[in-house]
Specification:
This protein is α+β, with helices and mostly antiparallel strands. The protein folds into 2 domains: 1-42, no CATH class; 44-250, Rossmann fold (3-Layer(aba) Sandwich), CATH 3.40.50. Helix content is 36%, strand content 33%. It is built from 6 helices and 9 strands; from the N terminus they run βααββααβαβββββα. The chain has helices at 7-21, 26-42, 83-88, 95-111, 121-130, 226-250; strands spanning 2-3, 44-51, 72-81, 115-117, 134-135, 138-142, 156-174, 177-194, 200-216. Strands 1, 2, 3, 4, 5, 6, 7, 8 and 9 form a 9-stranded mixed β-sheet that branches. The longest helix is centred in the C-terminal third of the chain and has 25 residues, at 226-250. The protein starts with a strand and ends with a helix. Residues 1-14, 32-46 and 52-57 have low confidence and may be disordered.
Length: 251
């Protein structure tokens, strides 16, 4: 049976029981305490697992459908995070997080085999990351838009925004083992702006991933897990891009 457990109370209780059982034999008590402390400090394991979250209908596990038509020229112009999210989770202000989001977006669009970029992929990412910093309205990192009508002007400008983010924590006890679970959820919207008509084609997706840790009489430390955020971000971007493609195909 699983139940919530106060670790400090549990340790004190076990220590008291050991003392009462062995109070007349100091050697036995010391041996039992030593064994207990060895288990307390050493019997721990950590694992990360990926959990699929559904947001609209998109299957990120399947490859993108084959495409043999004319490629569309695009420019990834802006990647942002809302002010409320950055204030609650300041880790988003780190450039490595910005790089992870921008890089996953550019690479996912490239994998569709539907688009040509007006710039080299790394050049676009570098320009966005150079501006990755917190401002009055959150993080709004932009590339310089190429003027319409030029030989390399894009048909669509691509915008992406993290609109939702949360980290939840839970713990359960089964027998003598405690398990902590850190679940990360992220929602991302990708928008294609037609530079001629000014119309948007949006697509949203959410991703979820969890880290778990198990230990004997121990609450394992689970810090902000960058790799978990990365897995959830990839899920969200993949679903968002699929939903944009589905809507573009209907036009």
């Amino acid at each position: 049976m699983k139940f919530l457990f106060n670790t400090n109370y549990g340790i004190k209780r076990v220590t008291t029981i050991i003392h009462n059982i062995t109070m007349n034999n100091t050697g036995v008590r010391n041996t039992v305490l030593l064994i207990f402390l060895m288990c307390f400090s050493g019997c721990a394991s950590v694992a990360t697992q990926k959990t699929t979250a559904a947001f609209e209908k998109a299957n990120e596990h399947e490859p993108f459908p084959p495409y043999s038509g004319e490629k569309i020229r695009i420019q990834v112009l802006q990647v942002g995070v809302s002010d409320a999210i950055v204030k609650k989770y300041p880790e988003f202000a780190e450039k490595r997080v910005g790089f992870g989001i921008a890089n996953r977006l550019v690479e996912t669009l490239y994998e569709t085999n539907r688009f040509d970029y007006v710039e080299e992929k790394q050049e676009m990412i570098s320009k966005i990351i150079d501006q990755w910093k917190l401002g009055e309205s959150g993080i709004v990192a932009k590339d310089a838009a190429i003027a319409p009508g030029s030989l390399v002007s894009p048909k669509f400008l691509v915008y992406a925004e993290v609109y939702e983010f949360s980290v939840s924590y839970g713990e359960a006890i089964a027998a003598m083992a405690s398990t902590k679970r850190n679940t990360t959820m992220i929602g991302i919207q990708v928008k294609f702006l037609d530079v001629v008509t000014g119309q948007y084609v949006p697509g949203s997706g959410s991703g979820q991933s969890a880290s778990t840790a198990t230990a004997l009489w121990l609450q394992p430390d689970l810090p902000f897990d960058q790799s978990t955020v990365g897995m959830a971000t990839q899920q969200a971007i993949d679903k968002a891009v699929r939903n944009v493609l589905r809507r573009l195909d209907k036009k």
